[in-house]
Amino acid sequence: MRRRDAVAAAVALIVLAAAAAILVSIRRHAGTAPLTWHTRTGQAALVSVVDADGEFKYVHTVVADGYSIAGGDMIVSTAAGSPRPSTGTSAMALGSGAQSTILRWPNARIPYLVDANSIPVDDRRRAWINAAVEQWNYPQSPIHLITPPGAGDKNYVVFRDAATPSVCEAWIGMRAGPGAGRQDILIGSGCGIAQIAHEIGHTIGLDHEHNRHDRDMFVTIVWPNIINDVGARDAFTPAATAVGPTTDLGDYDFKSIMHYNQWEFSKSPAQLPTITVNPGIPGATDLASQIGMGKTVSPGDLAAVARLYPPQPATAVQSLQILQGQP
User: Do 256 and 95 form a contact (C-beta atoms < 8 A)?
Assistant: First the structure.
């Protein structure tokens, strides 16, 4: 009996140690969400989008939460259809994103609201959404995130809960094409401030930093360590087809809020990295543990948005309308 009890105790210790290791491996940013929060499960599908020349092409996606998801957290279309166009060549300073005017928010103004039914007023995510919004909001960047939407706002953003706690997802830029109007940012109960800021970056028009064309000069994608999933592998493909071709301007930003961390889509998080910093990069060892782990929007992210939304001539009346939340 004593031997049996000893074996049971040993097994219990092993289970507890494994559970502790898992808990450690899934902490990210402020410790409020899973490390691999981009990892999605669902029905695999091919979704057609339209490129800059009006030609159809296909994007590998995962169907979940009523949407077709590409690149881990970028909404391409509703599961039932309504694909968004993938148009135009993008150009970013210190980043990567969609420059096509069809994806940019007019006057850099993004109306939004928080869905009271899925994220009630006493939900802690309310404060986190506010904190994430302030990281991007004017005067930090040219973006004016304004709530609530005005009566004349045809395009607006809704923060709502996701069925899966670890899910954080958003459209890239302003939703265009069939079904345009309301567009969701999905915020699972496990999403923290940094993840929400990341999704707002997508909504503004930013793509993932690690998918710049020049990324191989700075980081290495360890393909054998990526989970065996077509959508996951596509998440590390430069010039993600979810937003069309991209052009790199400025320096690679290791501290971008739009950068994956070294364990994203790993077969074994905290053991098998999917992204490593190239040995020749100064401070490579330290940078490896920092990429994708920032808690705030980086100066490079703000510079990228400034490039995406250059100053536009505006009358005093137009400027006042923007600040007052009028369309």
Answer: yes
Question: 306: part of which helix (H) or strand (E)?
Answer: helix 299-308
The three-class DSSP label of residue 226 is strand
Residues catalogued as catalytic: 199
> Strand 90-93 and strand 109-114: pairing?
unpaired
Distance CA 92, CA 281 (A): 22
Alpha carbon distance 96, 136 (integer Å): 16
Cα(92)–Cα(150) distance, integer angstroms = 30
3-state secondary structure of 6: helix
CA dihedral (192, 195, 201, 205) positive or negative: negative
Prediction pTM value: 0.72
How crowded is the C-beta side of 163, counted as CA atoms within 13 Å?
Answer: 8
Read off the pLDDT of residues 85-129 as tens digits, 9 standing for 90 and up: 333 333 333 455 555 667 889 999 999 999 999 999 999 999 999
Residue pair 149/156 in contact by the 8 Å Cβ criterion: yes
pLDDT tens figures, 222-249: 999 999 887 788 788 875 444 555 556 5
The alpha carbon dihedral of 100, 158, 60, 198 has a sign of: positive
